[in-house]
Write a structure and sequence with these properties.
The protein has 104 residues and is mostly beta strands. 0% of the residues lie in helices and 61% in strands. The chain is elongated, with a radius of gyration of 19 Å.
Length: 104
């Protein structure tokens, strides 16, 4: 079954068994199960149920496989002829989740 969900402020089109990289769930550990209740569309083709704005009673169950950090993004600022240079880095905290079950 196919669904469109919103989690961690981002929208995803998913199937059962998909693996997603999302912003880290606060206070979660690897192996925890999470329940996503913000489902926008459920099914596909003629059988699709489109929510107004959400599909009532639809939930998605996912399991957190691991919590990790993304690759480092370097931020470099410079103003020419002024001697101003700044170099900073940022690593985004991520959760890797696997979609286990989509229920209507």
């Amino acid at each position: 079954m196919k669904a469109v969900i919103i989690t961690q402020g981002k929208q995803f089109s998913i199937n059962e068994g998909d693996i997603l990289f999302v912003d880290r769930y606060v206070g979660s550990n690897a192996g925890d199960t999470i329940k996503i209740e913000i489902v926008l569309i459920l099914g596909e083709g003629q059988d699709a149920v489109i929510g107004n704005p959400l599909v009532s009673g639809a939930t998605v169950t996912a399991k957190i496989l691991e919590n990790k950090r993304a690759k480092k993004v370097m931020i470099y600022k410079k103003k020419r002829r002024k001697g101003y240079q700044r170099k900073r880095g940022h690593r985004q905290e991520l959760s890797v989740i696997k979609i286990e079950k989509i229920t209507a």
